[in-house]
From TrEMBL:
<feature type="domain" description="HTH araC/xylS-type">
    <location>
        <begin position="143"/>
        <end position="233"/>
    </location>
</feature>
<keyword id="KW-0805">Transcription regulation</keyword>
<dbReference type="Pfam" id="PF12833">
    <property type="entry name" value="HTH_18"/>
</dbReference>
<keyword id="KW-0238">DNA-binding</keyword>
<keyword id="KW-0804">Transcription</keyword>
<feature type="region of interest" description="Disordered">
    <location>
        <begin position="210"/>
        <end position="233"/>
    </location>
</feature>
<dbReference type="InterPro" id="IPR050204">
    <property type="entry name" value="AraC_XylS_family_regulators"/>
</dbReference>
<dbReference type="InterPro" id="IPR014710">
    <property type="entry name" value="RmlC-like_jellyroll"/>
</dbReference>
<dbReference type="InterPro" id="IPR018060">
    <property type="entry name" value="HTH_AraC"/>
</dbReference>
<dbReference type="InterPro" id="IPR011051">
    <property type="entry name" value="RmlC_Cupin_sf"/>
</dbReference>
<protein>
    <submittedName>
        <fullName>AraC family transcriptional regulator</fullName>
    </submittedName>
</protein>
<dbReference type="Pfam" id="PF07883">
    <property type="entry name" value="Cupin_2"/>
</dbReference>
<dbReference type="InterPro" id="IPR013096">
    <property type="entry name" value="Cupin_2"/>
</dbReference>
Amino acid sequence: MGAALSSSNGLSLRRYGASRGSHSHDHFQVLIGLDGVLDLEVEGRGRRVGAGEGWVVTPGDRHDFESKDGSRCLILDTTQDLWAQCAGRAPLAPQLLALARYLALCVSEPATSPTALHQAPSLLLEAWGPVVPNGRRRAIDWQALSDWARGRWHRPLSVADLAAVACLSPSQFAQRCRDEQGMSAMHWLRAQRLLHARQLRDRGIGVSETARRTGYRSPSALTAAMRRSTTPS
């Protein structure tokens, strides 16, 4: 990977090749494909960014990247918190590619387009679709989030996974979970898994099958978890 050109506001043009890279950073990184296809793996989840497509990598998320046939992307590195509401979803604006190509030209000739470069972060944020104005908090649909997790017990789930579905940063989601559910995010996730297991057992599903469906490593691990949850503290 190489950063071909960059501007003073966090906007840059980067070329990616077949050499695989991996890193994380303490800011949001917004990627918009200009040409070719960039293969991303963010915290174990795969994503392909082609021309006119985009993705937001949240702070702290380790991501691997490569482009077997080569690709070029417009990149925005930013600490603006509003990008947390764009994480985990693709941009909505159909004209994103045209905007990205225009901004790429501006990065190439910064002296001739200072206004466009100054407005670039706001224009890209707008391209992702509506965000909650005036600092109002996006409501978390806890039931929908629980339903989403139920379909994924077969693999380890992290706070970052939950945060991406809720369109929040991991730290924001963790705080909201403490505020609204009275427990840590991982405690809430374990509680949802155990609740699902109890519901399956109540329906007459055997211990082994319940453990398999809810991602416990063994029937005995499920039995121990259920016993702990009913033991007075």
